[in-house]
Amino acid sequence: MRHNFEQSAEEVIVPVPTIRDIAKQAGVSHTVVSAILSGGNGKVRYSKETERKVLTIAKRLGYRPHRGAQSLAKKKTLTIGVCFAWEMGEVHRHPAMAFILAGISETLSKHDYSLLLRVNPVSGGYLPKPSLFHPNEVDGVLLVGAIRDDERNLNLWRKSPVPFMLISTPNARFKKINFVDWDNFGMAVQAVKFLAQRGYKRIGLVLPSFDYTCHQENLRGFRHALLELALPFNESWVWAVGFEPDCGYKFAQEFLASKSRPDALVFLAEMAFVGFGKALIERGCRLPEDLGLVVKEKFPGQTSFLSGVAVLTPDYFQLGAVAAEWLMKLVKGECQPPVQQLLSVPLKVT
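RE: above sequence
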């Protein structure tokens, strides 16, 4: 059976409405329509009735302004650059990055902005130089992901003419840096206090690494909480186990075999916990009777396979959305740098 593809194609083609189409139906000049759709320029005069009529017709026709024309009119690129502090292979393996990117995208779309994702030529937790984005191609930049404590390029970004927002925690030596992140210090304090309230006095900490500023903030909060509660801090009960489930599984074997181990853990190595939890199930560990656990999730439902765990539940979509919203305010001149915000993380018991 033969199909008339030419005819089918003609039937589904819908003309894209233009300013002239709106002007014709409204009975006004295209100059008036252009002024109304751009929010008014003060030079073209029209009545409120004409404005309502033009906007109604534009909505009915499904008119969308040409981005190139918008860009020229506003002298903006209407584009925000995004770059991760990790190579794309690492980003792909960590689900939180997808949620952050979704939050960014939704917020930018509300402002009628596009997203330009660029690969980091440095990576490994280090930020690229500002030259990765040309000022003529973006109006602002979002830098995403945990960064190393010895990061070198943040001061270059601070001096850049392009507004930027770091979605991470910078080292305190960098002054006046725009950033949004979790309250990593407060997160650890909250976890320790939760375990202490349930009677645990020997508490350990598991991190993926000691090289990143956010994890150093976790450690600082952990020590602070133990000191405040007059609980012992044992340096041998603080571990950096890595970023993968296999790392957590290996750590579990060593931890469970140890005769001198804490009664509870604040486990902030999210992906490693998948392997750690698997090992606990294989050993038949009862939670929280055999071990108190507070775990930070990387994605919703990550710890659902293991009951008796207290879970820190960061909303990564919210993190991306909040950071993008602040960046848009900086781009539009609605606030002054530095913008710095720490988001709290809810804790729930499964």
